[in-house]
Amino acid sequence: MLNIQSLTKRYNRKQILNNLSFSVLPGEVIGLVGENGAGKSTLLRLLATIDKPNKGSITLFDYSYKKHRKEIRKQIGYVPQDIAIWDELTVKENMLFFEKLAYTNKTSEQLRQLCLEMNLDKWDVPVKTLSGGMKRKLNIAISLIHDPTILLLDEPTVGIDLKSKIEIGSYLLKQAKEHNRIILYTSHDMDEIKHLCDRVICIGNDLFYKEILKNSGKEVISF
Ligand SMILES: Nc1ncnc2c1ncn2[C@@H]1O[C@H](COP(=O)(O)OP(=O)(O)OP(=O)(O)O)[C@@H](O)[C@H]1O
Ligand SMILES: [Mg+2]
């Protein structure tokens, strides 16, 4: 279980996240919503150990983010808002490169399979020749190389066509439900949020989102 207690983050003197507390169980998909600048990416960066909170604690299966950073990192798959892959390298080379960095040992064939599961069939072509949606799929495939227990995805479906969006969505659902992974992801697409998420966390306590999600049957937690 992921447990977040009294999490607070300020940049300079600006309060971004104020006293967030919630827990997420394995297999749960949590949507993070809120207006631009609300703090969604900030929360994901804290959970990805890229940034540190000013106050509060995070634990993952009883491992503390403060004390067991190295152990925690092995459990995390993170896809940042800006795609982070090597443009000049091929899909295969990217997968092999990140496999070397990961705490795992996967064959080239296993890595290829991971891409194919996401309907990314390009392999020996430079990443710069891929479309934006294909790059996103590759970035998600990279985040799964080391079988993380928690997947943090910052707008994984932004700017991509409806078919790919549905493919990515159902792939993520499968990752949560069949592999028992915790998924936290941000999106501005409320239909997608309603469809994919078990619960929704609304950052910025904005009534606008609460209203939209009111009759969706989803539990909404506001901060
Ligand atoms: N490294 C930083 N230094 C200073 N301020 C920052 C830093 N990172 C983010 N911020 C500020 O924190 C606030 C929250 O930013 P964040 O990127 O988390 O928002 P967001 O909810 O992800 O927005 P969007 O929907 O536009 O992606 C913004 O006001 C932003 O300017
Ligand atoms: Mg963001």
TrEMBL record:
GO terms for molecular function: ATP binding; ATP hydrolysis activity. InterPro entries: AAA+_ATPase, ABC_transporter-like_ATP-bd, ABC_transporter-like_CS, ABC_transporter_ATP-binding, P-loop_NTPase. It holds the Pfam family ABC_tran. PROSITE patterns: ABC_TRANSPORTER_1 (PS00211), ABC_TRANSPORTER_2 (PS50893). Keywords: ATP-binding, Nucleotide-binding, Transport. Residues 2-223 form the ABC transporter domain. The keyword ATP-binding applies. It comes from the Bacteria. Belongs to the ABC transporter superfamily. This is ABC transporter ATP-binding protein. It comes from Ornithinibacillus hominis. The lineage of its organism: Bacteria, Bacillati, Bacillota, Bacilli, Bacillales.
